[in-house]
Specification:
alpha/beta, single chain, 139 residues, two-stranded parallel sheet, five-stranded parallel β-sheet
């Protein structure tokens, strides 16, 4: 089964490390230095067909140019994004931001994170991904 991940981080090194991790696990990977250049940012509603999602995983840094990662993920939820596995990463999360992310069902990774933390999360969520699901061809 092939998976798809969207990664948002303004640090090229983090994008590369995460790209390698996800690619090595068989994911089709799209990386962005900030949400504003992602096609999802421009849409008022989720552009995916009703029974599809754009990705299996969306992971975003908190502090990026143009838009805060938590705000971006919250907007995607509000727009009806059907991606079930959202994650936020930062070394500067306030208790309020952690609480808000968790209330929205967003997994939180504190930087500097260990890759083993993300791998453990991926192993857990991959068990729940329907092998017969269809990903949107939007990307």
């Amino acid at each position: 089964m092939s998976y798809r991940a969207l990664i948002f981080d303004d640090q090229p090194e983090i994008r590369l490390v995460l790209w390698r991790l996800f690619d090595g696990r068989g994911y089709e990977v799209f990386t962005f230095p900030h949400p504003a250049i992602c096609p999802l940012h421009q849409e008022d509603q989720c552009p995916c067909p009703a029974n599809q999602a754009c990705a299996d995983v969306i992971i975003s840094d908190l502090n990026m140019p143009i838009q805060n990662g938590l705000v971006f993920l919250e907007e995607q939820i509000t727009k009806g994004c059907r991606c079930q596995n959202l994650a936020l990463m930062s070394g500067e999360l306030s208790p309020e931001e952690i609480a808000k992310a968790e209330a929205l069902g967003i997994k939180v990774f504190v930087k500097p994170f260990r890759l083993a933390e993300i791998i453990s999360w991926l192993e857990q969520i991959e068990k729940g991904i329907d092998p017969h699901r269809h990903l949107s061809q939007w990307f």
